[in-house]
Amino acid sequence: MCYAKQMLAGNWGSAALGTLIYLIIMGALSCSYVGELILYGPLTLGYVLFIIGLCGRHQPNYETLFSGFNNFAQSLLAGLLYSLAVSIGTAFLVVPGIIIALGFGMTFFIMAEHPNISGVDALQMSWRMMEGHKWELFCLNFRFIGWWCLCILTLGIGFFWFYPYVVTANLNFYRNLRYAR
Fold it and tell me: How far is CA 78 from CA 108, 115, 117, 120, in A?
């Protein structure tokens, strides 16, 4: 987790602004569930690419937030299937939804690294990659519960700095899994 802070050092303001843009768009889309479903995948892929760029010490390019639309069909498919699977799992009980979300949790990192991969292949690759590692990812994200609560106490303003930190920590988790094998 500390490495995530180091990766974002010097870019916290840009990360917060990019997160603000992403969350405003996602919040506006949440008024229409269909709009959110359609744009979740492309916007999430764009956000992941934006964070990867910041961590790579590139100049902040806010247009990157919309680069998921360059692979619209596949990111749409991945986003729809991810949302559908997690929703169905959550409808049965909360725990299956969490397990499915953890299993597919690396999908957009995979799509960012492999721009020509299909959405279905990215989901399958994520599921295989997470075999035996879902608990580790759960524990990583569980460590952030206190910070989530503090962000709520700031009326959500803290999320603009906290969310890029969480995504960067998950990016590091992905890279450790991907390249440690």
Answer: 8, 13, 10, 6
